[in-house]
Specification:
The complex is a heterodimer of chains A (513) and B (96). With 513 residues, chain A is α/β, with parallel strands linked by helices. In chain A, 42% of the residues lie in helices and 12% in strands. Chain A folds into two domains: 3-300 and 418-506, Amidase signature (AS) domain (Amidase signature (AS) enzymes), CATH 3.90.1300; 306-398, no CATH class. In chain B, helix 1 (5-14) crosses helix 2 (21-38). Classes of the chains: A alpha/beta (513), B mainly alpha (96).
């Protein structure tokens, strides 16, 4: 078996046994990127030289008998919304096309310290807004299982690079399903940790009360390894949970006894593809055969989750993205042209005697903001800034934003009630398999509805994971979602590992020509 | 149509976005449909429900009051589209 086919855990075994070097491993993945990424388009930038340098450094320490970190020279791809010091971080936006962060995100720093080799930055929906990676302003990513289909999103590049064996480990982020949905679409394992488990410092913010960073990999075992490397309290993020981080890589292999699994009635209703449903029900039988008990639970407010999410997330986004003003960093419009345009508008108002027009004219500073943002941001980002500005504006705040915060509590209470009865909630990750590129781009609302099973976890702050559980007749992967109470990632990983011991869906790889 | 073109134009100013005439038309239609959808929440009874602002409710997280090295000015200015050695530059604000 070639190096790129191995899991991170197996690579680590070979590395520590001295059978291969990190330089060889890194080079193997770089070669795969070279040959496969022309078709897939998972990466926005590949940091070949610094990756090989980092790998050589790990090799020399290992050879000298010095300590080597948990990730021991295994390559890791980073979603391009985590700041990497001295390396371009774009958020797949024209706004940040040339942005070079002066510091590392905490997660990036931890991966460096754990000797993960940073191999490149992956494509995504611009500012993580979207579910197909089609909103990237900087490149197209295809699903490695069918190049005509989307990889999902927003962590589309992060999922596709693992599926196409271009990286064994990758970092994604999840605000409403952005790790789990692409993991499902691309047939990989993707974990959204509990809110606060992983520091958000250096993550370019979309919706701060929902954003969470998590691992994407081939197996639950590998996801456990990467989660262990990146989790933990961080004084730089006041919302990071001040609790001890378990050694996930040590506990992932322990089977759970007497596991109680709940099936959410509301996740098996209208809109669920029948093939996905049948596959998920088969997966549930696997758990039954492993000794789990299955019962029905209800999340009665689930049907309000999308509406709640599409008020809260855009509201937070409208505030977070106010920082892109063309002053401190990011795109700025051509100032000369802008001033000339304003002068022409003024002249037109004067000639037509339009006093109201004159009164309402933008100042040059305001026009600089508006023009820079109009040029630097894409349609979906604009839409969400506009929506959020509307739902937060005077007269609508109570009806929309405050109302959504209240429904958010009801959604959380549903989970608390359900988790009194069961240890894990299991169901489909998405209503259907990966759709064709372009199929939903004209109808934002239909794209939003893809998040039906994933957004609630972000609103409630609980953890969730998607693991491969089968394929459609057209050969597209189907994801199984497991959700657990806050800070119960160990259980999520253990249960996923149990499933992966009993099945081999996670070992399937797409054939790229 | 729950939103008018004028509503959307006003929101675009509040959002500090300059939209073209075509964009305004599309945005009005799309935002209206999304607003109609999120109006679904009005049927939920939320009397006596406390708003939930954060997933993990934490209180009073203080940082220790110690002096740290902050980002050096050169590095803070490094990504600025327009600057001199000390300051960010913006178009004239006064005397317009």
């Amino acid at each position: 078996m070639s190096l790129i086919q191995l899991t991170a855990t197996d690579l680590l075994k070979k590395l520590s046994a001295g059978e291969v070097t990190s330089v060889e491993v890194t080079q193997a993945f770089l070669d795969q990127i070279e040959s496969a990424d022309k078709q897939v388009g998972a990466f926005l930038s590949v940091t070949k030289d610094s990756a090989l340098e980092q790998a050589a450094d790990v090799d020399s320490r290992r050879k000298a008998g010095k300590p080597v970190g948990l990730l021991g020279g295994v390559p890791v791809a980073i979603k391009d919304l985590l700041c990497t010091k001295g390396q371009v971080t774009t958020c797949a936006s024209k706004m940040l096309e040339n942005f070079i962060p002066p510091y590392d995100a905490t997660v990036v720093r931890k991966i460096r310290e754990a000797d993960g080799v940073l191999i490149g930055k992956t494509n995504m929906d611009e500012f993580a807004m979207g579910g197909s990676t089609e909103n990237s302003a900087l490149g197209k990513t295809s699903n490695p299982w069918n190049l005509d289909c989307v990889p999902g999103g927003s962590s589309g590049g992060a999922a596709a690079c693992v599926a196409a064996s271009m990286a064994p480990l990758s970092i994604g982020t999840d605000t409403g399903g952005s790790i789990r949905q692409p993991a499902g679409f691309c047939g990989v394992t993707g974990l959204k940790p509990t809110y606060g488990r992983v520091s958000r410092f250096g993550l370019i913010a979309f919706a701060s009360s929902l954003d969470q960073i998590g691992p994407m990999a081939r197996t639950a075992e590998d996801a456990a390894l990467l989660l262990e490397a990146i989790s933990g309290h961080d004084p730089m993020d006041s919302t990071s949970a001040n609790v001890a981080s378990p050694q996930f890589s040590q506990t992932v292999g322990k089977p759970l006894e007497g596991l109680r699994i709940g099936l959410v009635k509301e996740h098996f209703g209208d809109g669920l593809d029948s093939e996905v449903e049948a596959t998920v029900r088969e997966a549930v039988k696997v758990y039954q055969s492993l000794g789990a008990t299955i019962s029905d639970v209800s999340l009665p407010h689930n049907k309000y989750a999308i509406a709640t999410y599409y008020i809260i997330a855009p509201s937070e986004a409208s505030s977070n993205l106010a920082r892109y003003d063309g002053v401190h960093y990011g795109h700025r419009c051509d100032e000369k042209q802008m001033i000339e345009q304003l002068a022409a508008e003024k002249k037109a108002f004067e000639e037509s005697g339009d006093e109201e027009g004159l009164r309402n004219m933008d100042t040059s500073l305001v026009r600089m903001y508006r023009q820079s943002r109009a040029e630097g941001l894409g349609p979906e980002v604009k839409r969400r800034i506009m929506l959020g500005t509307y739902t937060l504006s005077a007269g609508y705040y109570d009806a929309y934003y405050l109302k959504a915060l209240k429904v958010r509590r009801l959604i959380r209470q549903d989970y608390d009630t359900a988790f009194k009865e069961v240890d894990l909630i299991v169901g489909p990750t998405t209503p259907s398999t990966a759709f064709k590129t372009g199929a939903k781009t004209d109808d934002p609302l239909s794209m939003y509805l893809e998040d039906l099973y994933t957004v609630s976890a972000n609103l409630a702050g609980v953890g969730g994971i998607s693991i491969p559980c089968g394929f459609s007749t057209t050969g597209m992967p189907i994801g199984l979602q497991l959700q657990a109470p806050p800070l119960a990632e160990e259980k999520l990983l253990q249960a996923s590992h149990m499933f992966q011991q009993a099945t081999d869906w996670h070992t399937r790889r797409p054939e790229l020509s | 149509m729950s939103l008018s073109r004028e509503d959307v134009e006003k929101v675009s100013l509040l959002s500090r976005l300059k939209l073209s005439e075509d964009e305004l038309v599309v945005m009005t239609d799309q935002m209206s449909r999304i607003i109609d959808y999120i109006d679904l929440l009005s049927e939920v009874n939320t009397d006596d429900v406390e708003p939930m602002t954060h997933a993990v409710e934490q209180f009073n997280v203080f940082a220790d009051d110690v002096v740290h090295q902050s980002l050096p000015r050169d590095e803070a200015l490094a990504n600025a589209p327009k600057r001199d050695d000390e300051c960010f530059h913006v178009p004239a604000v006064l005397g317009d």
